[in-house]
ATP-binding protein (Leekyejoonella antrihumi), 393 residues
Amino acid sequence: MQPSPYTPGAIASELPGRDHQLAEFDERLSLMADLRQFVGRPRIDIAPRGVGKTSMLAQVRRMAEQRGAVTVWVAGGGSGSLIADLVAQLEAATESWAPTTRRKLHDLASRASFKVGVGVPGVARAEAEIAAPHTAETSVPAGAGEFTAFLAEAAAATQREHRSGLVLFIDEIQDADQSGLSSFAHGWQNLQHLPGQGPAPAAVFAAGLPNSDSALRAAASFTERWDYQPLGLLSQYAAIAALVRPAQRLGVGWGPDVLQAAVEYAEGFPFTLQLLGDAAWRAAGRPDPGGQITLANAMTAQGVIATDLATLHRARWNAATPAEQTFLQAMADIGGSSVSRAEIASRLHVASRSLSEHRERLIVKGIIRVTGHGRLGFTINGFGDYLRSRAED
């Protein structure tokens, strides 16, 4: 018996079907690590939950560390202050650096207008107050200048410590506090205008829900020029690889007929593929090397994970308002993996433009996704079937 190699709900160790995206990340890391360039345009990968944003961001972090970079990871909505989290994590990542470098970073943090405890051996701990949100859209928020100075020194220090650069990772960026997002955006932007030779090698990679661009634009209008990349569902080939590769490493196979049924059932959703793989593995008795996942195992797995998916479907339905539920029911009744906004409006006997507010709220809630120009789909497979069944009951 072997433990399951599938990881539903956890960070995946490999990312089949994401080779193109990883190659783009590698190119940016090469600019920073090999050519010692400052990568000024942050990249934000956006997608609904369950598509693999965090797993991909974690893989890029491993790539950056393999290239000798200092990495800092934070998630929006943590302590309440994005800037405080970034500085605290950077302080933790530099514990082994020279005392003079850490003392200088400590002094810069102490003068800043964000609240963070900074500890340096032999130096007293210091705290400063969080900056109040700025009101004018074009004004620079309090604390941005201090944050720029702090980042500039940290990036420069990576060179003195013989590291290839500084890379910041921000997960769930849409949940970060607006004041922190504004200070971060302005602080990062200001790095590009430093006097002298310019900023040291550094880069920013982030991930968030489809409303991330709106959250960032509300914090600083110029962030509309940042690099937002939608992360789609897996192709048939990638879905097959997501099931086959983990099993192959343990000497276990999937039959072609089994794979076809499993891939059709999952519809390219990474979370569902991991659920299905894990349940099929257990249905096969946690096979030893030489074992096979059979069609019967896959059918059993579908029945097992139906409960998990039903719970998820029910939670998403309950998260919608009555008006939004009407919108969702119309999508389900139309059917298909992708429906047009015009079809929804026609079914509800309303003008297409009147759907905008419900559409945006459902996207922010992660219940629907954009599948093309003027087209929408659900963010988890089987949701349409669930709604049609619910309506019949």
Remarks:
- The two ends are 42 Å apart (CA to CA).
- The first helix runs from residue 19 to 33.
- The domain at 320-392 is CATH 1.10.10.10 (Arc Repressor Mutant, subunit A).
